[in-house]
Amino acid sequence: MGKPKTPRALPDNEAKAVLRMIRISPQKLNLVAQLIRGKRVEKALAELEFSHKRISGQVKKVLESAIANAENNHGLDPDALVVKEAYVGNSLVMKRFHARGRGRSTRILKPFAHLTIVVREVEEAA
């Protein structure tokens, strides 16, 4: 028998992609996520392509995955997609110690982040 299928959390005109455990601080990742929020996917991909931020390549991969999910899994038109949401969440923080002068040590924090991108199909204004 098994349990019943979980209902879909997103509306029918939306698709999402998630990348977890990215080795960057959420604050820095959010700067790149702000670049693409609310933009058409073609424009967002161009922004990420020419961004100088180190993480922009991984964000571009997640956006491309969301576009592929929309096209292949949900039958949405990839030319009519807009980035509805791009949000960042905290993940674990690795704690390391660094030797300092006079026999002391300092804690070094190495944070990780999660990235979720939701794309939505918008109707073309004729």
TrEMBL record:
HAMAP family: Ribosomal_uL22_B
InterPro entries linked: Ribosomal_uL22 (IPR001063), Ribosomal_uL22_bac/chlpt-type (IPR005727), Ribosomal_uL22_bac/org-type (IPR047867), Ribosomal_uL22_CS (IPR018260), Ribosomal_uL22_sf (IPR036394)
Assigned protein family: Belongs to the universal ribosomal protein uL22 family.
Pfam families given in the database record: Ribosomal_L22 (PF00237)
Cellular component GO terms, alphabetical: cytosolic large ribosomal subunit
Gene source species: Devosia geojensis
Role noted for this protein: This protein binds specifically to 23S rRNA; its binding is stimulated by other ribosomal proteins, e.g., L4, L17, and L20. It is important during the early stages of 50S assembly. It makes multiple contacts with different domains of the 23S rRNA in the assembled 50S subunit and ribosome. The globular domain of the protein is located near the polypeptide exit tunnel on the outside of the subunit, while an extended beta-hairpin is found that lines the wall of the exit tunnel in the center of the 70S ribosome.
Keywords: Ribonucleoprotein, Ribosomal protein, RNA-binding, rRNA-binding
Subunit structure of this chain's protein: Part of the 50S ribosomal subunit.
Name of this chain's protein: Large ribosomal subunit protein uL22
A Gene Ontology biological process term: translation
Keyword match rRNA-binding: yes
Magnesium in keyword set: no
Superkingdom of this protein's organism: Bacteria
Annotated GO MF terms: rRNA binding; structural constituent of ribosome
